[in-house]
Amino acid sequence: MSLRADTPAPPSARVHRFSRAERWVHRTTAALMGVCVATAAVLYIPQLAVMVGRRELVVRIHECAGLALPVPVLLGLASRAFRADLRFLNRFGPHDRLWLRAALVRDKRRSSRPAGKFNAGQKVYAAWIAGATLVMLGTGLLMWFTHLAPLVWRTSATFVHDWLALTIGVVLAGHIGMALGDPEARRGLRTGRVSREWAEQEHPLWRP
Question: What is the spatial distance between Cα 15 and Cα 40, in angstroms, rounded to a whole number?
């Protein structure tokens, strides 16, 4: 009999997916990203700016959270499990191309979406958000330390920073929406373990 998605599997039917270090990297990064998005909204939406006030404090919180954003990942590199998963995320194989092709044509058959420990969508998201974070950090530094570059560079940095922030907000909303639709994936990030049935269905090429 199959297990319901919202019913935890018994311990004997669960497999290890994420280490404690990996879970803390994800949680801390998510918290810092949430602070960045929330403070950015306060800074750029007039109604929120009026409601919250204390713009200078909000700016400082936004800057500190942005500077701290890469720190959890850098600390996570001390974990062997985290480094191993980064290698998985950085490898794109033939099965990933099949997964993306199926996603583009909205083919939801499990057989058409082969995946290892991470599917192609997760790999693309991880690469994109990592690159976007670095761009946001670089443009943010140009905006913060005005003596680092001429005015035209700072103006361009502001334009890129603002529009990329909006794009990140949209992508994060999609990421959260996908997570809300998969209770077992969320359980894996919370406890480090997932049901064997879920692993076989969603990540058939993964050998835990």
Answer: 39
Q: Tokens standing for 170?
A: 């949209």
- The per-residue pLDDT for range 68-86, each reduced to its tens digit, is 999 999 999 999 999 999 9
Please identify which residue in the block is written with the tokens 């990421």: 175
Q: Is the dihedral of CA 49, 55, 58, 64 positive or negative?
A: positive
Local structure of 149: helix, strand or coil: coil
**Beta-carbon neighbour count of residue 194 at 10 Å?**
25
Burial 168-185 (b: 16+ CB within 10 A, else e): beeebeebeeeeeeeebb
Rounded CA gap, 169 and 36, in Å? 10
Angle between helix 20-44 and 55-68 (nearest 10): 150
CB atoms inside a 10 Å sphere around CB 114: 18
Asked if residues 9 and 1 have their Cβ atoms less than 8 Å apart, the reply is no
